[in-house]
Amino acid sequence: MASEYLKWKYRDVRPESPTERSAAEKRKNWWHYHKWYILLGGVLALALADIGWHALGIGETVPDYQIAYVGTNPLPSDTTKAVEAAFAVLGADANGDGKVVVKLNQYARTGGDSADAASYAAAAEVRLLGDIEKCDSFFFLLEDFETFQTGYDVLSRLDGSQPAPDESAELAVRWGDCPALSVFDLGAYSENLLGQTVSGSSGELVADLYLARRSVRADRTSGSAEACEALWKALMEGVATR
Predict the structure, then answer these.
(1) CA of 163: how far to CAs of 90, 153, 155, 168, 169, in Å?
(2) Cβ distance 123 to 53 under 8 Å?
(3) pLDDT tens-digit profile of 41-85?
(4) Could you tell me which residues come within 8 angstroms of residue 69 by beta carbon, excluding any fewer than 6 positions away?
(5) What is the distance between the alpha carbons of residues 19 and 216, in angstroms, rounded to a whole number?
(6) Distance between CA atoms of 154 and 135, rounded to whole angstroms?
(7) Least CB-packed of 75, 102, 122, 165 within 10 Å?
(8) The 3-state secondary structure of the chain, one letter per residue
(9) What does the pLDDT look like over 84-128, one tens digit per residue?
(10) Which of 240, 169, 178 is nearest to 207 (CA)?
(11) 103, 96, 85, 78: which is closest to 198 by C-alpha?
(12) Which residues contact 54 (CB under 8 A, 6 or more apart)?
């Protein structure tokens, strides 16, 4: 009698027939081995789309006019909005999107000797230089227009002509001396320049700031130059010049 071992050794072994998986099981198995590739690819695609979206300016509101504010302290947000609204009333839809949008870019050099103040001032300077280089802002709202012109040499006379070297006359006009702007009631702001909740008059805050314009040169001009010139003419209506 054959031993049990020999029976086991020479047993008739037949491979089991492969089990056919359902479509759902196949999909589940495929997802198990490929899900991380799909997820990583999706994240990468979203990141690239976001970069392209912002690079093309898709979905962003493009301002018709831009104003560069340069002063010691930043303007309160309520004052900024009031200034933008005043310009928008006098402006026109320059880019044809059906609305008049004005953007005030703040480049404040916050006073003080702290490291934070120095960093803030340095960052503002870099952003201002970028604005000047790209000709973003046609209009300037300045605390000290003479020092600004000495440092950057980008302003023209009020009539748009080129100033002589070191000339400061007729380069700017006080907001309070500009009838087209001084008639606006800019309302109050709800915080002071330090971010504290103290109301004040936006009109009084900007009354002694100087309004100036970019010098237009053949190779250096802002977008919508004709619309900017038209708005500047409206702003200068009634301004007394020497």
Answers:
(1) 26, 9, 8, 8, 9
(2) no
(3) 776 776 665 555 555 555 567 899 999 999 998 999 999 999 999
(4) 75, 80, 104, 105, 106, 107, 108, 140, 141, 142, 209
(5) 79
(6) 10
(7) 165
(8) CCCHHHHHHCCCCCCCCCCCCCHHHHHHHHHHHHHHHHHHHHHHHHHHHHHHHHHHCCCCCCCCEEEEEEECCCCCHHHHHHHHHHHHHHCCCCCCCCCCCEEEEEEECCCCCCHHHHHHHHHHHHHHHHHHHHCCCCEEEECCHHHHHHHHCCECCCCCCCCCCCCCCCCCEEHHHCHHHHCCCCCEECCCCCCCCCCEEHHHHHCCCEEEEECCECCECCCCHHHHHHHHHHHCCCCCCC
(9) 999 999 999 988 889 999 999 999 987 555 666 777 788 889 999
(10) 178
(11) 78
(12) 60
**Angle between helix 77-90 and 225-235 (nearest 10):** 100
Rounded Cα distance, 64 and 81, in Å: 15
Parallel, antiparallel, or unpaired: how do β-strands 65-71 and 139-142 relate? parallel
Structure-token pair, residue 172: 């700017």
- Exposed e or buried b for every residue in 123-143, given b needs 16+ CB within 10 A? ebeeebeebbeebbbbbbbbb
Structure tokens that stand for 13 in this block: 């072994």
**What is the C-alpha separation between 111 and 118, in angstroms, rounded?**
8
